[in-house]
Amino acid sequence: MRFLSFDRLDRYAVRLFAVPLLTALATMLLATMLQRLLRLFDIAASTGASIASVLLLAADLVPHYLGLALPVAFTAAIFMAAARMGDDSELDAMLATGRSIARIAAPYFILALFLCVFNLYLFGRLQPLARYDYHVKMDAVLQTNWDAKIEENRFIDIAHGFSFSADRVEDNGRRFTGVFMERRQNGIEEITTAVRGQLESDPDTRKMRLKLEDGLRVRQAPDGAIATTRFVDGYVEDFSKARAPYRDRGETATERTLPELWLAMCKTCEPDSAAEFHSRLARALLPLLLPLLALPLGMASKRGRRTPGVVFASLALLLLNHTLQFGKSLAESGRLPAALAVWTPFLLFALLSLWVFRGSLAWPGDNPVSRTVGVLERLIERLKPRRLSNLAKAAP
Fold first, then answer.
1. pLDDT tens-digit map of 191-202
2. pTM for the full model?
3. Residues 253, 370: one domain?
């Protein structure tokens, strides 16, 4: 119990960890989402969608990019916290008082456990729901500019039972001449004609509306009574083309939650569901391995091994991400069982992290990565005098 209790040093280690985590997470989210945001603004400009719709689409992308950024930010924060304690000789003081490397790593493992719980919600529910919501909103945005496709003297169906036609279409489908509209609903037939019409954006509802000028409206009630109305200016609110509703959620495995994937995997044995389920579970449990890798590399930074540690951790995470994606592809194609294809790279990464962490226990600040770099540096130093002497002998 004493090992699991937080003391002042643990709280200090967490404080050192918090600021780099938030900084790295915000930086990575901004860097990864910037290109997609530019693409969304380009789509909005071409379809006439509002800025609010772009921001809502970007919000649905956050869970996806958060899942990619969290492992890297978590690793970088632990590395920077350990490097900070090493630079200030605080690690030496902790070790001198009998505090082991495992005990120093204890708060980071507890944080990793909490992060795994959050990841189960992120990968298991938030991401698939946000992904489906993104596709629904994107479908609505892509159909916003339907008016640019209106052809002259052709009837089209729009919302609320209206049929619309115009003799002339100008201004990229926003100005009309010779407007004719027909509506049949609840036994009432209504015909509206106008000399001119113009599409506008309603500032209150942010929907398209049709402004009509010099018009005539004829309405026939179910009892046969006919009413005629002439107007100078009139509006047709919510003037949007009728479109089929978007498909239901869950047609693809990426849009299903973890419980839904489990049911599909058990009932139908779909390879897509099994691959998606194991891939998400592996990514959710990944934070438990990151302190094993990041803490030894951060502790070794005081001895001039900071750059090799950063490069090694980056390459290891990048390789793991690609191998998990490759294993998922193999499982989806049916070439390998999903559990074997996904969990094999995960276990190899776990063995690598344990090897690095165990190698640092005997001598804090030292690990297999730093020792390998040291051997390579000594080998290069030995080769330099020989090369210089050979060049001197070859000189005339």
1. 888 888 887 766
2. 0.74
3. yes
